[in-house]
Specification:
The complex is a heterodimer. In chain A, 37% of the residues lie in helices and 28% in strands. By secondary structure, chain A is an alpha/beta fold. The chains are: A alpha/beta, B mainly alpha.
């Protein structure tokens, strides 16, 4: 059985005359996956389809092996969702709300009480859990939403712009928490964001949307592989080494005191070793070049 | 002896492998939560004040009438029946009922849209339909507090002070009539208050809408029938008249418009309930969340 948590095939969704998703093909695996795209790229619409809140106009979508258009309640019982907008009643205590939503997701009362407390502890609101939500800061409210999405132990957590409105320290803490959920808690997470940096920090995989289409998707380490290039930092004459490597048939670019060498891994490593030995120079660094997510974006011709 | 105590600094995450209840439990949880919300319970003092005070006002006349009948000897009250009839009692608390209807429906329905909780609920096993079912199951019993509770108090009080039904059969008949009458009034006002609340996110506007709908339907139909000689069946559109006229018939009385057939009153109530429910359903089909 495959580990794919979300599989979309040719998904089209229109809102009136607006084409929100224009044939999305995607497979999202376990771990933390970033759903990246500019505002209006179709991220929230895709989350809505995953939740079974809308019906796609064309194509098929499967979530945890089920079709959310026909098995919406069953799918949503196993999902946790923290929406982007403020979605909390100010006059209700955090624990009451989280407990209530755990019950709505099918947990018996006693289990919901205990898990609401646990979830609020996990998001760092253990001491604040009996405070009315209206008296909490924006960061605390975001964490209440996360606790509410977490309390019923979902198999997949959907977080829509969870760092909106947070200051840098709160944002840091929230991202660390999301990373923990995806690793320590063993819950798959889809993190919708328009911020490259935060996706790069916490995600294992990424799905980049632009104007309703998938620009690129896959595991972050594969996407950041740098197109097979290696960075060589010699302890000596850079130009001489570059000339030797070019003579060996490799594509070489001099970048300051480093070389970017493109070629098969074995061929590059052997050629660099031989050239350095012949020139009697040392090697400070030899590593595969990794692209930033921004490079991936730019390579895909997208702007966030 | 030692003063060292064990502390758990990191609980770790525990997966849940216990029982998961179905959609029925989701509906029940939302209904209970909404009932508490409608009555202002587990909320601030000010949130409780109006609903609780209104419920109190609905019961007060019954308590006073029963108290007078119980305390003051028959020689003083003479042949006067100090306690109003079951159907007539609605006339004493119409304002409280209308006020309560205007408070509860909007509180239960508007708040979720205004504070964004609707999106959280629809991301749960609830669908739009089961969500609305939970809301109906919340508003209906809360309204029964003022459309059924005071009448039950009257019935029990009358029976205890020996001015109520004399036989068990009579008691059962009045009890059934009381239950049906309370349910009819609660049903039509649940539908109307939810319909008004479905059309706006603002509670105050919805509350004003409920009161205005009742007042306008009453004054316009009265003016047209009494002033312009329109057909008296126009009273079927009068929301302040229709349910209470049907209540009179349920208790076996003629009511104030004997020319209107009971069947037409039943049809009128039924049409209002279906029409208002259709408005709510249509409105919630139009709402988009997570777009």
């Amino acid at each position: 059985m495959t580990d794919i948590v979300v599989r979309a095939k040719g998904v089209v969704k229109r809102w009136g005359s607006t084409l929100a998703l224009a044939g999305v093909d995607a497979e999202i695996g376990p771990g933390v996956t970033g759903l990246l795209g500019a505002n209006g790229a179709g991220k929230t619409t895709l989350l809505g389809l995953i939740l079974g809140l809308h019906r796609q106009d064309e194509g098929r979508i499967q979530v945890l092996g089920l079709d959310p258009t026909t098995a919406g309640p069953e799918v949503r019982a196993r999902l946790g969702y923290a929406p982007e907008h403020e979605a909390l009643p100010g006059d209700v205590r955090a624990h009451d709300l989280v407990r209530h939503l755990a019950e709505v997701h099918g947990l018996p009362r006693k289990a919901a009480v205990g898990r609401a407390s646990d979830a609020l502890w996990h998001v760092g609101l253990g001491e604040e859990r009996f405070r009315p939500i209206g008296t909490m800061s924006t960061g605390q409210k975001q964490r209440v939403k996360l606790a509410a999405a977490l309390a019923h132990d979902p198999a997949l957590l959907l977080l829509d712009e969870p760092t909106n409105g947070l200051d840098p320290m709160q944002r840091d803490a929230m991202l660390q928490l999301i990373r923990r959920i995806g690793t320590d808690f063993g819950i798959s997470v889809i993190l919708s964001s328009h911020l490259l940096e935060e996706v790069e920090r916490v995600c294992d995989g990424v799905l980049i949307l632009s104007a309703g289409t998938v620009v690129t998707s896959g595991r972050l380490d594969e996407l950041r592989g740098g197109g097979g290039a290696f960075i060589v930092e010699p302890d000596g004459d850079v130009e001489a080494l570059a000339a030797r490597l070019r003579a060996a048939g490799l594509e070489v670019e001099v970048v300051g005191l480093r070389l970017a060498v493109t070629g098969e891994e074995l061929a590059v490593v052997d050629a660099v070793r031989d050239a350095c030995a012949e020139l009697a120079i040392g090697i400070r660094r030899l590593q595969r070049r990794t692209a930033t997510l921004e490079d991936v974006f730019l390579a895909a011709g997208t702007a966030v | 002896m030692t003063d060292r105590a064990a502390h758990i600094y990191e609980q770790g995450y525990r997966a849940y492998d216990g029982e998961r209840l179905g959609v029925r439990a989701s509906v029940r949880s939302l209904a209970v939560h909404s009932i508490l919300r409608g009555l202002g319970l587990r909320r601030t003092f000010w949130a409780k004040l109006l609903p609780i005070a209104t419920v109190g006002i609905a019961y007060l006349p019954a308590a006073v009438f029963l108290g007078i009948a119980a305390i003051i000897p028959d020689e003083i009250t003479g042949d006067l029946d100090a306690i109003p009839g079951y159907a007539d009692y609605f006339g004493n608390i119409t304002a409280a009922i209308v006020l309560f209807v205007a408070i509860v429906g909007p509180e239960v329905l508007c708040s979720d849209r205004r504070n964004g909780m609707l999106g959280m609920y629809l991301a749960s096993p609830l669908t739009r339909e089961t969500y609305l079912l939970a809301k109906v199951l919340a508003v209906l019993p809360v309204l029964l507090l003022v459309t059924l509770g005071p009448q039950l108090l009257l019935l029990i009080g009358r029976t205890l002070i020996d001015v109520g039904p004399e036989t068990v059969a009579d008691f059962a008949l009045v009890l059934v009539r009381t239950l049906v009458a309370g349910l009819v009034v609660a049903a039509i006002y649940t539908a109307v208050s939810l319909a008004a609340a479905s059309l706006t996110d603002r509670r105050a506007v919805a509350s004003a809408g409920v009161i205005l709908t009742l007042l306008v339907s009453s004054s316009v139909t009265s003016a047209l029938v009494e002033g312009a000689d329109f057909d008296r069946r126009l009273y079927l559109l009068n929301l302040a008249f229709l349910p209470f006229e049907l209540v009179q018939r349920i208790y076996g009385e003629l009511g104030s418009e004997p020319t209107l057939a009971t069947a037409s009153l039943v049809a009128g109530v039924f049409t209002w309930v279906i029409g208002a429910a259709a408005v709510v359903w249509w409105r919630y089909q139009q709402l988009t969340v997570a777009r």
